[in-house]
Amino acid sequence: MRRSRFTENEIIHLLAEASSGVSIAEICKAAGITERTFYRWRRSFGTLDVHAVQQMNELKSENLRLRGLVSNLFELLRNADTAKKDAAAAAPEGGTRASRIAAEKCGGALTGRFSSVRVNP
Questions:
Q1: If pLDDT is split at 50, 70 and 90, which confidence band does 35 have?
Q2: HEC profile for the chain?
């Protein structure tokens, strides 16, 4: 979105001039804006003063920051759930039948092909 040439304080000043009795056509001509822009500004900032606009901007920035925090938390939770599901699918309970038989023959000391498999007695 393109940035405005006017700050919010300038916009509020122009709106205050219109409410004090200066014609809208004169304000638009002096500021170099169209009447459509003026009415759009009036719809957005209508009854606000400078302090209210500053407070509104602070709330917008805080809202943006909080939305970012929430999305980061959702991402962390999603990754944790995915990791748990992957770990549960990769490690079956008790190992395979062949690994259990090999563990029984070796007396629990696994060597060779089955050395990475642990069996809980």
A1: very high
A2: CCCCCCCHHHHHHHHHHHHHCCCHHHHHHHHCCCHHHHHHHHHHHCCCCHHHHHHHHHHHHHHHHHHHHHHHHHHHHHHHHHHHHHHHHHCCCCCCHHHHHHHHHCCCCCCHHHCCCCCCC
